[in-house]
Specification:
Two copies of one chain form a homodimer. Chain A is an alpha/beta fold. Chain A has two domains: 159 residues, Molybdenum Cofactor Biosythetic Enzyme, Chain A (3-Layer(aba) Sandwich); 75 residues, Ribosomal protein S10 (Alpha-Beta Plaits, 2-Layer Sandwich), CATH 3.30.70.600. Chain A has nine helices and twelve strands. Chain A has a six-stranded mixed sheet with strand order 2-1-3-8-7-6, sandwiched between helices. In chain A, strands 10-11-9-12 form a four-stranded antiparallel sheet, covered by helices on one side. In chain A, strand 6 and strand 7 form a beta hairpin. Chain A starts with 8 loop residues before the first strand and ends with a strand.
Chain lengths: 251, 251
């Protein structure tokens, strides 16, 4: 990979016992990963942690110092296990206040008469935070410095992430191509290693899979350079054909 | 939660650019999470990291010092991007050798004549590591101290994980119950907070969801004590009925 440029980096912190217990399948990492690719941001790490204040505090604090952006998901609802907002306020040493703009947003979603105290808890935001609009269910997220606090429910998180993309400074979008073949990895290994050396700007990944009882390999190329991607993809296809393999899916 | 007992803890380290890019949906965290619950092991953290030697080295080293068990997934195949084995060997300062037992296991899977050099690379294991049998595709994983090195393909990883459960010392299995209702979280919040205080041994989680355009809440109770789980579940159902809500799914 190109080491001359500074890449903008990001980290996702998934907060929730339900992900660690396996009861709920996380879908937010893959969604944010795809968005980062499009934005030219390198998603460098994700951490899944429990609903434990010390874990949230230590993890977000460590990550915000290392990565350009930190996205947290989960723990900003109205119930006792929603502790993310309080912990982030503590992390940045800011009091929590009932945010007037958040109340207005929630009034227009729920209706003034349906805004009970539990719901209003979701309008309690650290002082000075920038709100993140929630077009799905009213209650906003927020941003402090490089930390973006988002909810855990995927369709709500996704709609809110859409709204922050113009706050994120990225770089050239990551372009990807893939070639699928039924050749085993072991036959491809030498050739792929040679291609990786020939195209240092392209990250070439080899991902075996089982489908309908047969092994296959998905060869994925990632780079910000369109012409290089075209060249590398052609070279991978040539490698497969030279090994008398079948290209199952063209990029 | 009970703070008088030392709980056995674990961490999953998912190694792979394809998870961070969102091209591949991770399924290993949820599988290992469920297994840990059954084994009475607390899965306390998961980290997803790229195929970068320094990231693997630093992450596994940090995690193995904090948690009783570390499970890595990904990066032990035959191609250039499979670097986990080499990095783990470096971490434990051990040379890599062609492991005779691994060669025999792979011979019986592939047949002696089909064991080319790329495949044999998967029999190169750090000296003194304990092999982890692969009943699906031959190439083994391995264990050094409290670090278990597993592949990324879910069905292979799962079959191999089955084979190590008798090496893992856990505790009382985590028991879970859940109650689903159409009541909004905001209506349930006060009552759930009171129940959490009444049952400190039970971790009560409230997970909103969208299904068929309607919001609902899944209330999940987790504890190692069967009688307490029964009591807490009954109390949650009573709470919902007192709020004139419908219990959509009984535990």
């Amino acid at each position: 990979m190109d080491k001359t440029t500074h890449h903008i980096t990001a980290c996702v912190v998934v907060i929730g016992n339900e992900i660690l217990s396996g009861r709920t399948q996380d879908l937010n990492i893959s969604y944010i990963g795809k968005c980062c690719d499009e934005l030219g941001i390198r998603l460098m790490e994700c951490r899944v942690i429990p609903d434990v204040p010390e874990a949230i505090l230590a993890t977000v604090d460590a990550c915000r110092r290392v990565f350009d952006y930190v996205f947290t998901t989960g723990g900003i609802g109205p119930t006792h296990d929603d502790i993310t907002t309080a912990v982030i306020a503590r992390l940045f040493n800011r009091p929590i206040e009932r945010n007037a703009a958040a109340v207005i947003a929630m009034q227009s979603y729920y209706g003034v008469d349906n805004l009970n105290e539990a719901r209003l808890k979701m309008a309690d935001i650290p002082v000075g935070a920038m709100l993140i609009d929630n077009p799905v269910s009213g209650a906003p997220g927020f941003q402090i410095e490089n930390v973006f606090v988002l909810p855990g429910v995927p369709i709500i998180m996704q709609a809110m992430f859409e709204g922050i993309t113009d706050r994120l400074i990225g770089g050239a979008p990551m372009l990807t191509g893939s070639v699928v073949t039924g050749l085993p990895e072991s036959i491809l290994a030498d050739g792929l290693r040679e291609l990786q050396n020939r195209y240092p700007d392209v990250a070439i990944g080899s991902y075996p899979f089982f489908r309908k009882g047969k092994l296959g390999v998905n060869i994925v190329m990632r780079t910000t350079r369109a012409a290089t991607l075209t060249d590398a993809t052609a070279a991978v296809i040539l490698l497969i054909r030279n090994l008398e393999g079948e290209v199952i899916k063209m990029p």
